[in-house]
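Before a colleague's protein record goes any further, I have to sign it off. Would you go through it and say whether the fold makes sense for this chain? Take the sequence as given and treat only the tokens as open to question. The record follows directly below this note.
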Amino acid sequence: MAGKFLNDAEHERIRNAITNAEARTSGEIHCVLAQRSDSYFLPAAFFLTMAIIGLSLIAAIVLHLYWLALPLYQFVLAQAASVATGLLVLHFRPGIRVHLVPRSLRYRRAHENARRQFVGRNIHLTRQRTGVLIFLSLEEHYGEVLADSGIANVVPQARWNETVAKLIEEASCGNLAEAFNAAIAMVGEELARHFPPTVDDQNELSDHLAEI
């Protein structure tokens, strides 16, 4: 099913990549693509307000150095008008909010979203605890591979870091389908190496990428 970022053909390619990867393993792969992991309105509003106050104080000092007086009520009104205008811009242009907050906060919110998706989509409930989430949050430029306990004890984190690096590299070039296909291939390779298919293997997770 076509979504906001990927068309039907791209979704089908990703589904086929997951199906082919899972044919060689008892592990399960699920993919989630998020536009953003938080609204960021409150933190963006806070940092914007602090910036406006700081700049207005600098402007007041400069005016004072040049012997230019500004009545206090005008100064306060100018600050209030600037803050109100900034908040209106943040309200109607949500895409700029993420650029006003620190990277550490963006990454923390994206990581929290990845964990919510992992639990909310029952990736932790596979029979052998061999579920893997490939997660990408676009506006934060954040990717993550979350593996359940059965896999995390076997596959080193360095391998997942390589997978995430490839995921973000392709996504940064606008190749979202290729980004997921490359990550699926790398995850599938590790799963096939450590968790070969079993006789009673079942497809426990959806092979369709979820856009949220």
